[in-house]
Amino acid sequence: MAELTYLQAISDGLRTEMRRDKRVFLIGEDVGVYGGAFKVSLGFQEEFGAWRVIDAPLAETAIVGGCTGAAIMGMRPVAEMQFADFISCGWDQLVTVAAKQRWRAGTPVPMVVRLPSGGGFSGGPFHSQNPESSFAHIPGLKCVCPATPEDAKGLLISAIEDPNPVLYFEHKHLYRRIKGEVPEERYTTPLGKARVHRGGDDVSVITWGAMVYTADEAAQQLGSDGVSVEIVDLRTVMPWDKAAVLESVRKTSKVLVLHEDTRSGGFGGEIAATIAEEAFEDLDAPVKRLAAPDTPVPFSPPLEKAFIPQVEDVVAGLRELAEY
Amino acid sequence: MAIAREAGPVGSLHEVREAGLDREDLLTVYRNMLVTRGVEERGHILYRQGKIPGSFYTGRGNEAAAVGVATAMGPDDVGTPLHRDMGVHITRGVEPWRIFAQYMGRQDGPTHGRDGNVHMADAQLGLIAMVSHLPAMLPVATGCALAFRIREEARVAVGWFGEGASARGDAHESMTFAGTRKLPVVFVCDNNQWAYSTPTHYEFATEHVADRAEAYGFEGVVVDGTDVLAVYREAKRAIEKARAGGGPTLLECLTLRMEGHAVHDDAFYVPKPLFEQWAASDPIERFRSWLRDNADLTDDEEDEIAAGVKKLLNDSLQRAEESPQPDPSRLAEGVFASPEDLDTPHHK
What we know:
Chain A is of the alpha/beta class.
């Protein structure tokens, strides 16, 4: 085991697969000579060559569509969007072509799109978004949102191995802030299996990505008041581990669904609806949602703080549930 | 003023032999063009009989362009044909009964009723199924070429688009990427002069779509899309150039869409004299005359080919009508691929 940052764990996972499988290649803007805007692929071009670490033109449609074609021809492409926000320029290729190809034409499209997502550093409206809900809504796409370095590596390897288009949301605010033990050998972390980040008895928090840590700080605060909080880290939003969520709900009978994406139409709504449909009798309080307000992501620090759910917001929500 | 090279017609049988087609090949090309038109004519009848759900599209007038390019492709080459390119499916070997089943939404169509009309492909024949968003298949074809380049395989991808689709960013991004990396891809523009009701001068401001190729760093060629032999010669040249590492070509096949955008559209906006002018250059009639004048096509041969095509279409229709409706209980199957789905020649 080595202690790696979240970012180093992503690099480690990608390097592991590129060494193991010649079909895996990386393509994106500035991923080669520069090593990627966040340096995930630093040194990769030296190791793997310019035809496996490809500096693409500023053309997300060509990148995502190119990966689709290469995947159909038997490669295992990994595309890097410089920021998750720019996937809007590749939407058609992902949603119209890649997502539907297996179902309608029988042609699998095994590809990964890496999406540096999330806010917390004044990235503003176009460098901070969490668009996972938009893609989780599209039949045929998988959405992965690792929170820990160990999961970042294991989920990336699973995503590359998966025979489908997989969107891998890597939260930028975790890149260098979060460190953890990561096995040096190759391992996979299954898609669709949640992880109990913290066990507890009184209230459940269902969340993913950077919000796992916000929830954890809130849980620590409540712990000193004698409220025991369980945190379920979904790890993957599509497919999502309904069984693990329902198990936690049945245990605590109170649940907060938390995400950094905006509230209306966010994936939390799907989770809350499922809990209401399938675990209504187990609930001792209404399902509570906590998410960003329905605005674009703001730039200025006080505005961004008001946008992204903060520890005190989660504490307040959990207290409300605990006292219900 | 045109920047692209304007290719001339093919003259003699000798010239055709130079380009790699013997007399038997020529008769196959002729037959494929007849099957292409026959499939669409029979499809139209099925539509009028109420047997085809949704709408119905044909590529009448585009038979030479589609068959000519597909004939120039190698067995391991791949392509992304569109809704005017039935001739590509036929030339690559898709059986007409499966196309009729596709039209009717039956279980034995290539998409098993999950998608309609020409939204289909047989991956085993090197074809990738189109989507409605034109020209979204150009980046995909470019990606196929990228795979060939990474693996250093002597294979070529052919990506089709229309002159209307040339307005969209996908075309620009694909050609930019393919040009910068000299990828083995040939971009084929079916310029049939009308994107639904919109004429070419509202789609592009140059004389030809192929004039753009110069700006992407590769050759643009305009060819008469009703001349199957000229299309074949230019496609062959472009494909072999790409195979040899010479990078992309933009090949524009100029035709006229001889019917409406789809069956509901009577194309009132196309000037009548234009239809009359292009009807005189019908690709099948044109090639038939050429074969009689240059390759000694006899009445007997013509009759034999026509009878063979008629029987094929009759048998195919019957077989397609016997194909069952798809099973609604299986609707949710295959949204996601399973690892066994990767057990194909491409993924070994």
